[in-house]
Amino acid sequence: MSKIILVVGPTCSGKTTFTNMFLNSDESRGVFCNVISTTTRPKRTGEVDAKDYHFIERGTFEYGISKGDFIEHEMINNQYYGSHTADWINILENGAKIIKVIDVKAAKKLQENGYPGVFSPADVSVIYLDVATEKMLEELNKRNTSSEEILLRRHEKMLCDSYKNHADYVIKNFNTPLESTFNIFKTIILELSKK
After folding, report:
1. At 179, phi and psi to the nearest 5?
2. Which of 137, 180, 194 is nearest to 18 (CA)?
3. Backbone angles phi and psi of 39, in degrees to 5
4. What average pLDDT does the chain have?
5. Angle in degrees, 0-180, between the axes of helices 147-163 and 133-142, rounded to the nearest 10
6. pLDDT of 148 above 90
7. Taking burial as the number of CB atoms within 10 A of a residue's CB, which of 4, 111, 148, 154 is the most buried?
8. Mean pLDDT on 83-111
9. What is the pLDDT averaged over residues 99-127?
10. pLDDT score of 151
11. CATH class of segment(s) 4-194
């Protein structure tokens, strides 16, 4: 049985949308929790502190790294992202399972090593949500994304794609209706939670 399900994939793959849909489903209630990430990046319009992210200053984040407060952390686009070890422990000790959208580098570390004293690699499953490059570019253009940001996202997609074969499941979110892809996602999670 997977205690921890990590959801990875490039920008615009639907990883956050599907994870939030699952966390709001009847099947998730009382069984799965999300670990809210901490970041140094500025809050975007509509985001709420302690709901979307814990927004903190760079110095505070770096102090937390030096103390070993983060179970995983990465520098992405010159901003820190990570999650507190205490949050993971609290969820697992209360008998819930974790579903977490996470960067591929952090997913690979946790999949290979677990986190000694908290969980083993056997407790971790990874779902990779794939998106066609054309669809990703179309979505980025709808968001009025800058050319520089689009270049970064294309590079990120290549990095993500190189990780795809390490995932336990790959879901292609190309031109499939949202609800159909979500049902595949939900079925996989429910199956993993039984194993």
Report:
1. -65, -35
2. 180
3. -145, 160
4. 89
5. 150
6. no
7. 4
8. 94
9. 94
10. 66
11. alpha beta
The b/e string for 161-172 (b: 16+ C-beta within 10 A; e otherwise) is eebbeebebebe
Which pair of structure tokens corresponds to residue 114? 């677990």
3-state SS, one letter per residue, for the chain: CCCEEEEECCCCCCHHHHHHHHHCCCCCCCCEECCCCEECCCCCCCCCECCCEEECCHHHHHHHHHHCCEEEEEEECCEEEEEEHHHHHHHHHCCCEEEEECCHHHHHHHHHHCECCCECHHHEEEEEEECCHHHHHHHHHHCCCCHHHHHHHHHHHHHHHHHHHHCCEEEECCCCCHHHHHHHHHHHHHHHHHC
In this structure, the number of other CB atoms found within 10 A of the CB of residue 115 comes to: 18
* The pLDDT of residue 44: 87
Q: What is the pairing mode between strands 70-76 and 79-84?
A: antiparallel
Q: List Cβ neighbours of 114 (8 Å cut-off, separation of 6 or more).
A: 120, 121, 122, 123, 124
Residue among 30, 48, 38 at smallest CA distance from 72: 38
